[in-house]
Amino acid sequence: MMKTAIYPGSFDPVTYGHLDIIKRSAKFVDRLIVAAFINPNKKHMFTIEERMDMLKETTKTIPNVEVDAFDGLLYEYAKKRKGYFLIRGLRAFSDFDYEFQRAMMIKEIDSRLETLFLMTDMKYSYISSTGVRELAHFAGQIDRMVPPYVAKKINLKIHSVKK
Ligand code: ADP
User: Fold this and answer.
1) What are the sequence ranges of the domains in the chain?
2) 20, 41, 101, 141: most buried by Cβ count inside 10 Å?
3) How many CA atoms, within 13 angstroms, populate the side-chain half-sphere of residue 71?
């Protein structure tokens, strides 16, 4: 049976931290679906189309990665896509509490769903999309946190907003 995993997140925008998790997890499944979450309650910097475009552009060299979007409940989306492995990245102790609860809850709802955690690579452990957005807003250096394609989109977005 084909092994499909789902890596859900906001990816607002995708960072080198996310890309590291994507590259590493794509190696142990047949297909990795990177699923950007459409959350109407959250104010995003980028639209779902823009977030997907950046994900597609930065993962295009990994053949078994598919980029998609989902709204509503993650476990229903996972069932629909037959992706019984959920991938999450762990950066710090602070991620653990939230991720632990979330994984337990999902397991309780559907015991077929397994959440797999990958530890961040040390060199990316400090990177978060929130940090990148804040830094970019104040014209800080983001080159070591996001690929050039993403940095360009961020700069365009910030300038169009400020105009
Ligand atoms: P963020 O917290 O950066 O806004 P997302 O909601 O898009 O990120 O997170 C999606 C997943 O990616 C989560 O499991 C999160 O822990 C993981 N992740 C985010 N940044 C990193 C990083 N630098 N290293 C490893 N995992 C990460």
Assistant:
1) 4-162
2) 20
3) 6
- Please report the pLDDT score of residue 163 as a whole number: 55
Using the CB atoms, write b or e for 92-101: b if 16+ within 10 Å: eeeeeeebee
Residue bearing the CA closest to ligand 1, atom 12? 89
**Is 126 annotated among the ligand-binding residues?**
yes
What pTM does this model have?
A: 0.93
70 is in an annotated binding site: no
pLDDT at 91 over 60: yes
133 vs 2, 103, 104, 138, CA distance in Å? 37, 27, 30, 9
CA–CA distance, 48 with 129 (Å, rounded to integer)? 15
pLDDT digits (tens, 9 = 90+) for 6-26: 999 999 999 999 999 999 999
89 CA distance to ligand 1 middle (Å): 6
